[in-house]
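Something for you to look into today, if you have time. What I am after is a single protein written out in full by you. I want to see for myself how the chain folds. Could you add the entry underneath, on a fresh line?
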Amino acid sequence: MCGIVGVWSDHGLGTRKNVEQRLAAMVAMVSHRGPDGRGVWTDGVVGLGHARLAVIDLSDAAAQPMADAHDTVHITHNGEIYNYRELRQELSGLGHRFRTQSDTEVIIEGYKRWGIGVLERLRGMFAFAIWDAKARRLVLARDRVGKKPLYYCRHDGMLLFASEIKALLAWPGVPRVPDLDAIHRYLTFQYVPAPHTAFQGIRKLPPASYMVVEGDGALRLERYWSLPEPGTARPRPAAELEEELRQRFDEAVKLRLISDVPLGAFLSGGIDSASVVAAMARVSDRPVKTFTVGFEEPAFDERRYAKLLAERYGTEHHEFVVRPDAVEVLPKLVWHYGEPFADSSAVPTYYLAEVTRAHVTVALNGDGGDESFLGYPRYAGAWLGSRIDLLPGPVRRALGALGRGLPVETSNVRALRYLRRFLAEADAGDAERYGKWVTFFSHEQKRELYADALRDRLGENCLGTLAKWFEGGAPVAARAAWADIHSYLPDDLLVKVDVATMAHGLEARSPFLDHELMEFAASIPAAMKMRGLKTKALLKSAMADRLPRDLLKRRKMGFGVPIERWLRNELREMSYDVLLSDRARARGLFRPEAVQRLLDDHNAGRHANHHRIWALLFLELWFCMWIDPPAVPPRP
């Protein structure tokens, strides 16, 4: 599947031809560029549209929007339901008849049997809209973890919804006004947290939620699933947990191999994607197709470790050396993401999706392993910080003062940067301390940076949004992962991959994000998933017989690009020109002298400001593309 769009109005939509033209314009803005057909449907109150990436049941009968045999329930659906065969068999036993082999028809018949309760039975990734013509009811729903996006807005008495923001903006008259509160949050986290977007009036449907719009316009938003809280975990023998983990993981991988089109896997040099490929090789009757991108800079190149795994399992391995043209790719990213998004790993993800799509239509990946099995180094930092909490208050305050007094973030001494960041928060609380690890512009840095248009936002410290995830008695590393699962994972990582893959008509599937596997992981105590400072200990033990020793023992490496160097070389002139332009100054968002200092200090090697500069650069390019022009921009 690929993208959905739609519109609902309690006072009618106007002429069918006019509505279909507008829906077609919305569908045309969906990023997928493949040859598959586009469809629209209207009945006077609601209109549905779809841009199809055919993966299961490639026949025309499975095209969307789809209706039941009585033409009373209509759906447009983005995603895949991995247990659709089991549900189809159950529904057939209850008397339901099917005309296609698609998973989408199973949602329709499941809705007719169980109503909104069908959501609790679906195992997969999805966002869909159902129009129940008999009940005059519209239902919008999104999968549990947030793999598939869904945006909506109210406009001129109508409710518009779509898989991508840019599709909403294609409807005539929808305003393109920046939401400065959302931009304030973006500068903290490098992404806009749900339910906000960077546009006033446009919202994200949260993960694990559904919205019902009744015929009278009454709107109801509810959550249908929650992951068990960390404090509910109970200890069990390690060998027993490892065996169950392998079984559950293999099942999650096997479910995601259902496809009527060519399928492969992203393979980095990390534990998570390697575990996925190893499981694929165990259950597949043919060589697995694997895809790796590398860089000429050794610090960003994982090809050697990916090749170890590929050789062990005899995969059909495809390796590409990427020489990104940052100036050329940035406008493409700004268009596809549709709102400010400063995770620089979007660049290699975009290129990886591009080269992978030349060979397959579906690719499995390792997303979610770090959050469920405590793999990020910052979780070890959170645990170590909890040890400092055992020290007397005066000692902690002295350590904090020592950290803040260390030399500022010099780009040449990475260990010193980490030590300074760790010690500087020695006297802070858990949520505040962890928040500093995931912050790009701190509240203090914003005070220096903000000009008049943003200055009144300084009354809100965005890190406060993390505090609720740190409540309870669970270990701090488990609470940090709990925060990530509800923020960083759905609002950054999953957005990054979905947009980059959909831009090339590639479907990404994530076994670690299987909700039953995540529920199992949530039942495991943090002390068993991460032993002291040893991250992802349980997963590594469970996969020890499947993965090369060198891969298991290596230090974790992020999927990044050398933006620190780019901003001193290829992007140096562009960053000065864009961020200090008359147009940027006229917005009144940032003090020009503060921006100049960020740029100068970075290029002189005094501070490592690359992530902050990248965030500002993406933001200004977003303004130039999505806010300033009188019309919605075409694909670059």
Remarks:
- The mean pLDDT is 91.
- The longest helix spans residues 238-255.
